[in-house]
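User: For a benchmark we're assembling, each entry needs the component sequences followed by a predicted structure for the full assembly. Here are entry 17's components. Please fill in the structure.
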Amino acid sequence: MNEPSPMAPSPARSNSSRAFMLVAVSIVLALVIFAVGFGAGFGAGHLGQPSTAAGQDDGAADTLRERFPVFWEAMDLLYRDFYGELPAANNATYAAIRGVLGQLDDPNTSFMSPEEADFFRTNLQGSFEGIGARVDWDPNFNTVRVVEPFENQPAWKAGIKRDDLITHVDGEEIVGTDLTSAIEKIRGPKGTPVVLTIVRLATEETLDIEVVRDRIEIPTIETDTVGGNLAYIKLNTFNENAAELVRQAVEEALAENPDGLIFDLRGNPGGLLRQAVEVSSIFLGKDETVLIERFSDGKEDIYKTEGEPLTTDLPMVVLVNEGSASASEIVAGAVQDMERGQLVGAKTFGKGSVQLPQTLSDGSILRVTIARWFTPDDRTIDGEGLEPDVVVEITDVEREAQQDPQLDKAIELLGGEVEPLPVQ
Amino acid sequence: MLAAVAAMTMVVLAFVAGYAAYPLLHAIPLGPAVTGQVTQQQEMGQYWQVWNLLERDFYGEKPANEERTFGAIAGMVQSFGDPYTFFVEPEPRELERDQLAGKFGGIGATLELSDTGWVLHPLPEQPAARAGLLDGDVLIAVDGAPITGTMSSDAVIALVRGEPGTTVELRVRRAAPGEAARELAFTVTRAEIETPSMEWRLLDDSPQTADVGYIRHTLFSERSADEMRRAVEELQAAGAHRFVWDLRGNPGGLLNIAVELADMWLDEGIILTEAKADGTRKVFSATPGQAAGTAPLVVIVDGGSASASEIVAGALHDHGRAQLVGGKTYGKGSVQLIHELADRSSLHVTTAQWFTPDGTQISGQGLAPDIAVAEGDDPLPAAVAALPMVQEARK
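Assistant: Structure for entry 17:
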């Protein structure tokens, strides 16, 4: 931009200046922290397959030895000769399992020991206090990586950025541990401070950042009017109320006769597949394909829109970014392929696979990628992500100045007015 | 004394950076099953469940069984939580075996990765050069197996190396200046390529030090003992009465070689004591006779001197045979056995801790030098200064 005056922030970008009509507020549970690996897995629920642990061990050690001789050779030698404390037998087993999974080239196929599984079960329920960031385990650096600091939540406010690697929590190193124990250390009661040591690869900085934990409440949906007469709907997660809330919000927006609709899926990690199909059904025509799901055995399920759409012609832009994953990518992919609207923002996360959790005989859980999602035009989502029709990145400077060029571009594309910045 | 151990499994004071292996001529005779193994096999049932679930349901490319096994072993070994206990896949293992042997069957060329692929640099008078390969030839196939720039150097080298006397067919792409690139094929007979672990010279650039023999020692390989004997003989013949043994950056190597080398400079006494997991102790002692009699000796060490280097330095220091000059040593006081597994991969297992003659355990501590030299300063002048003058009786 060459204009001497800086671009204006739009009404929706500053918490203090915008008055949200919160259609509903719900506490986002595990999605806040685990999501990518875990939240998207909710999609598996629709399968209705029993979570049986197939392949029960036949218990015949001879068979194991025959099919796996070098492994046993190594294990015998270790147990015979090793100087030092021997690992608990099940830990060696779990490590072997993780070693095999590491060869799969699929970060979403994962394993949880019984203790980790317990932790997830307990912590996926009830209220949640923490730093308000979605994190994942980065296998390359063997530590926690920030996937998405949620806007206006403690981590975001403290200056933690996407892709920051967390190496220490209150001075204690977490590199080489595991996601569960790291998260246990990061989380804590509201109001308590935690010092995170961050390695920021982009700038090669190491920083100690203090974050004051808070109760993390993220509304499922946020609505607003922007750019004059454009409806703005932001969906933060695909929980079980998501489609109903979006339907309600669109109905209310349509009553105002807007010139266009901005559907914001930025930072939305996904959730329930069923909800993604129902949300798509609000905007797409009847009986249109929303996604194709393919299984390892070649079986294919085609999901189509259901029920009556609310609007199939109101001009629409879907905002996406690196944090838009899974169910978000299904909706965005369908909108893009059906040419229902343009995608604006940054390339999406690329999580388009389904994991089926299986409980093993000792209570540990294996989550196996059993299927992959493809858009109506048969584009693969997993590992690829969706390229927006109009790519708009947000620089750190813009982020800190609370500017939102992605939203501005959406407003511009829909013919709305981008408000000038008040003279300072 | 060591022969029995060495014949069964090479004992290696493993390398700091964690590389591999030594050849076993025979399969390892396994000891009786220890208690706990039965439990272990039952626990492995979950592993088996996972394996079957992946077979049945996994969407995506499944790695070959061999790769899965490697992953499982590497993961399992990691759970022992010891950086020196690790698994080495067959290809890198072969190279490490060559390194510890101090020789290998090869073509006498170095490899370098460039934009165009793996580029050969033949060494003069060696098989590759004699067969007509030229500097800059790009390797495109070895015995019919295509070579690409995406392959690891280990993988390429493993294909090129083989028994001395055998042949290997290399296809290369050669681009002479101003000409289109041509593909050429060469048959090269592999020869024994030696990789010395020691170099030595007289410090005769100054008359005051002209009787000092300097021995630079980089790895405790199989050939080190012979090299040390030759070094001492040649240096003495050239007039050396005093010696400097430089172990800087020497990460260690074979335990029996460390003992043999220390023995060459000691007349009697303990070299090291090894404590095993089962509580047994084994003492390694010097035998009478020294390679260079009572000739003064100084050992140079630094933070890169580890393992076998520390055994030698610790023994010579504790017996007052040599002063240590330089920086504090690395501090690796454990012994690994390297087992070759059935598929030619190998497993390094920490089996013992060792102690210097005075009972010092050096794990995580390192040995402090008698005469410290600041990092970055040349320790050689201090080392020479620490050597007493020797009256030359022969003159």
